């Protein structure tokens, strides 16, 4: 290889700021920030705007740290899956050692400063969330059980509890149900994706339910979890963070979600292959709206409560 070709290859693989930012999984971080923000504002205790900003910032950094540590450990399977092959580590732009150092540093920074800015219960919940996502889910369950996404979903469900704890210093029924909303949403959301992305998990040898038990069993699980999710989602409307706007939103969205899960359950492989998993893809897109709309309704209710208090 000529010197010019070698230099060109180095420039192609040289990491840029965007590569390091991609380590933090910004799309996932968006959900973390939003649900934590809703938990913070829905809490019955007013928080100084600067303290609230710091709380959300450190929660976001903690979520990003989890993403970096996940990419560090999962670099081997990311390299063989189509949807992850272009991530910074398998693409050769960031080393695993760099990702590990960034993840650990940001984890300590986020937890310590969240504790100093708010309280140590919130910091402890954030530290446990990072530990749960990296150790319990990524290192252990993801490659060990088809229920990986169920148990691992707890990590993504903690942010509203952390936001609530940052404001109040405690845990309540409302914050636990906000946790349950995200926790029970995660399996049907990811299993719908796995139905039309099964080949990725086959190649990576990740024991997703579609791989170990097949698509018919996965469809039945999606329906079961959606029924359970609907009950918790509507029930949340009768806590202190609920109200008529939230209840109306929950009733409409859960009716649509249950309808979609029922349609998926009734599908067979011939129909799926014939229309390229059209129903499953639509359900997955609806699942993205589902969670943001529920937490958005909680945010609106919190805003109306604050206006009423004035």
TrEMBL record:
The chain crosses the membrane at residues 28-44, 50-73, 99-117, 123-141, 148-167, 173-196, 217-238, 244-262, 283-304. The keyword Transcription does not apply. InterPro entries: Protohaem_IX_farnesylTrfase (IPR006369), UbiA_prenyltransferase (IPR000537), UbiA_prenylTrfase_CS (IPR030470), UbiA_sf (IPR044878). Keywords: Cell membrane, Heme biosynthesis, Membrane, Transferase, Transmembrane, Transmembrane helix. Its main location: membrane. It is an enzyme of class 2 (transferase). Its EC number is 2.5.1.141. It is a multi-pass membrane protein. Pathway: Porphyrin-containing compound metabolism; heme O biosynthesis; heme O from protoheme: step 1/1. It catalyses: heme b + (2E,6E)-farnesyl diphosphate + H2O = Fe(II)-heme o + diphosphate. It comes from the Bacteria. CDD domains: PT_UbiA_Cox10 (cd13957). It is found in: Cell membrane. Converts heme B (protoheme IX) to heme O by substitution of the vinyl group on carbon 2 of heme B porphyrin ring with a hydroxyethyl farnesyl side group. Carbon 2 of the heme B porphyrin ring is defined according to the Fischer nomenclature. PANTHER family: 4-HYDROXYBENZOATE SOLANESYLTRANSFERASE, PROTOHEME IX FARNESYLTRANSFERASE, MITOCHONDRIAL. Interacts with CtaA. Belongs to the UbiA prenyltransferase family. Protoheme IX farnesyltransferase subfamily. This is Protoheme IX farnesyltransferase.
